[in-house]
Amino acid sequence: MLSHETVPLNQYFSLPKVELHRHLEGSLRLTTMLDIARQHGVTVPASMFNLSGLVQVQDKDPMTFTNFLEKFKTLRLFYKSPDVIHRVTREAVEDAAKDNIRYLELRFTPVALSRAEGFPLHDVMDWVLTSAQETARKNNIKVGLIASVNRHESPELAEQVIWLATEHIKDGLVGIDLAGNEAEFKSAPFREIFKEAKQSGLHVTIHAGEWGPAENVRDAILNFDAERVGHGVRVMEDESIAALAKERGVTFEVCVTSNYQSGVVKSLPEHPLPRMIAAGLNVTVNTDDPSVSRITLSHEYQHVCEDMKVSFEILKQSVLNAAQASFMKDDEKPKLIAALKKEMKM
User: Fold this and answer.
1) Under CATH, domain 9-29+83-344 is a member of which superfamily?
2) Banded model confidence at residue 7, pLDDT cuts 50, 70, 90
3) 210 is annotated as an active-site residue
């Protein structure tokens, strides 16, 4: 249980926010999943309570990465039509806006979205981009999209996704991401593809140092020229790699509840985020998969301050860190940062 002694939840909610690490596939509303199941004949439990056990981490669940990833096996059943993909994208952006997020980078995995019904990858990209940008305009939030590829997929498929991503830079697709099971699959087959993508104008973020060792963070920095690292919390296991990340100005997209639920840390108070901050690393706070984890970014902010004893002022600085490290166009960043500073009285 949280102590609530530091700052009431409504003060975390009222803080303007920036989020850099949120997966579309982990953001589906339970009510929407039940609607889709009824409309498309997806066989799932008829009640929200029973469905929740399949697609959301429960308090009684084992806190392991296998249990965490298991939730996505059921989630992949729901991408049944273009209307569904439009809807889940729209709702993900609406939910972020409701949590007072001013700028969101929403990553999505075109292969996962296309596979349930064999949709062409370029259509899936168009559907997500169109819905995200339309909803952003209606909800006073700015959204950048990141196309994600998985380590267990073929490099040829990743190349196809990244080629399409390059074609969509003009439509708000700002970066690419290498995700998936880093404990069992190597990153090496994707290095050249990601280097070419960066030369084409796409920004690069790499999932590393979550379920794999600190060495994977070094790999992301040196072999992928990653500007940001997804999670990266195991960087603190190696001082030389932490020093390299600090020297290069790499930003860490930390997701505290996800790290606990997937077994990376044993408890929230033991999370290395405060040590990362003390070591001078550039740290941001994110949700990862808000629906799977049953959280909002406001809840994450509360955990950081109250379970990890990070000061509210440092939390506010992490919001500015996220804005500065965003893949937003350089000429648009100063306006966002100035607005955040004014509202947070910094």
Assistant:
1) Metal-dependent hydrolases (3.20.20.140)
2) low
3) yes
